[in-house]
């Protein structure tokens, strides 16, 4: 197992991809063009994943932003907890504006609580990877190539990306044998591996599913996907309450959230959303919890409702899986999502759902 080496190689490859982008844009490169996140450009019709040339003003703004963040978190995150205690509203506002990409991996570990788990469990990850066996190993191997197949880090069969992804998923399936492995976990682990080492990604996965900071999310992957069922129940009610015209149309066309929103929750938008938008959502998700998934989903449906209410069933299903490019712009969608109030209603709907599933089945 070459955890730190593989991560170092990937960081070097990210730098080379930036050079490839610049060469391609200037017409001097012959390498396969990739965007700034490492996805092959020609495989993505959406412009949302491509990189445009930044102006010097944009670069200056980004550099100032990075300096602010470095001052806020300190060396290796040493000042983070102190700053959060002193200025929580500043931290929340900056996270919502987007964490600088060069600091994203570290900040994700700090806000999720995974860094503390790592420090409290030295050697555990290595033990799980090297010395334990998992009943899910064949399933993991089968699914590896389906995770971000157009990303350069995961493309090579048995390459460092696929090997790291296998190690993280195998380790978790041993760490929590009740959950084991479920296919949607691959996209979450894959996303994390683009920003941190294997061991760091593993402990962040543990922090999410076991609830280091927010409510545990392991129910997303238990048999029957019980937490997914709860979230879909809550989302359906919120659509009817907050977007009644669209909610009524969904009822008429017999559309329910399981037809379009299951992956929103199972992969936290990492499966089908443009990568820049998924990253911005993950910044907030790790800081504020799952309510941002509801907020983004509701904002997206509301933004597109004038078109959606005119569509019959077949076209509606297609539209709910292929949202227009302008709707997927993080600077458009997220400001619409943040003001939506859902916390109190989610708690009430959770109680309603628990009452519903507790009712005895009528003969």
TrEMBL record:
Show the SUPFAM superfamilies listed in the entry. Ypt/Rab-GAP domain of gyp1p (SSF47923)
Supply the SMART domains for this chain. Answer: TBC
Q: Where is this region: Disordered?
A: 1-64
Cite the record's Polar residues compositional bias ranges.
1-13
Q: Which Gene3D superfamilies match?
A: putative rabgap domain of human tbc1 domain family member 14 like domains, Ypt/Rab-GAP domain of gyp1p, domain 1, Ypt/Rab-GAP domain of gyp1p, domain 3
Task: Tell me if Magnesium is a UniProt keyword of this record.
Answer: no
Q: Enumerate the UniProt keywords alphabetically.
A: GTPase activation
* Domain spans labelled Rab-GAP TBC: 98-289
| Cited InterPro entries | Rab-GAP-TBC_dom (IPR000195), Rab-GAP_TBC_sf (IPR035969), Rab_GAP_TBC_domain (IPR050302)
Q: Could you identify this protein by its name?
A: Rab-GAP TBC domain-containing protein
Query: Could you tell me which species this protein originates from?
Result: Brassica carinata (Ethiopian mustard)
């Amino acid at each position: 197992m070459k955890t730190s080496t593989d991560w170092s190689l990937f960081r070097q490859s990210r730098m080379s991809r930036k050079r490839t982008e610049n060469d391609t844009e200037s017409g001097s490169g012959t390498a396969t063009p990739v965007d700034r996140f490492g996805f092959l450009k020609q495989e993505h019709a959406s412009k949302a994943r491509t990189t445009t040339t930044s102006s010097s003003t944009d670069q200056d703004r980004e550099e100032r932003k990075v300096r602010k963040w470095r001052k806020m978190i300190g060396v290796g995150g040493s000042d983070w907890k102190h700053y959060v205690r002193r200025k929580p509203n500043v931290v929340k506002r900056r996270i919502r504006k987007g964490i600088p990409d060069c600091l994203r991996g570290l900040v994700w570990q700090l806000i999720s609580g995974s860094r503390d788990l790592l420090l409290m469990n030295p050697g555990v990850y290595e033990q799980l990877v090297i010395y334990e066996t998992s009943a899910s190993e064949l399933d993991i191997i089968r699914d590896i190539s389906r995770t971000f197949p157009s990303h350069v880090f995961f493309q090579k069969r048995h390459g460092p990306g696929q090997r790291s992804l296998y190690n993280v998923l195998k380790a978790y399936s041993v760490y929590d044998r009740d959950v084991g492995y479920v296919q949607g976990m691959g996209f979450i682990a894959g996303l994390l591996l683009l920003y941190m080492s294997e061991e760091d990604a593993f402990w962040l996965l543990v922090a999410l599913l076991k609830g280091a900071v927010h409510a545990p999310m392991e129910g997303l992957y238990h048999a029957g996907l019980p937490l997914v069922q709860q979230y879909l129940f809550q989302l359906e009610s919120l659509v009817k309450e907050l977007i009644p015209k669209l909610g009524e149309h969904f009822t008429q066309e017999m559309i329910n959230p399981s037809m379009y929103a299951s992956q929103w929750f199972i992969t936290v938008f990492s499966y089908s959303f443009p990568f820049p938008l998924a990253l911005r959502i993950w910044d907030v998700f790790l800081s504020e919890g799952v309510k941002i998934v509801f907020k983004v989903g509701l904002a997206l449906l509301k933004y597109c409702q004038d078109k959606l209410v005119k569509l019959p069933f077949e076209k509606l299903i297609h539209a709910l899986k292929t949202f227009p490019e302008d709707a997927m712009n993080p600077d458009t969608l997220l400001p619409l999502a943040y003001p939506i109030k859902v916390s109190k209603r989610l708690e009430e709907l959770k109680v309603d759902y628990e009452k519903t599933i507790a009712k005895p089945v009528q003969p």
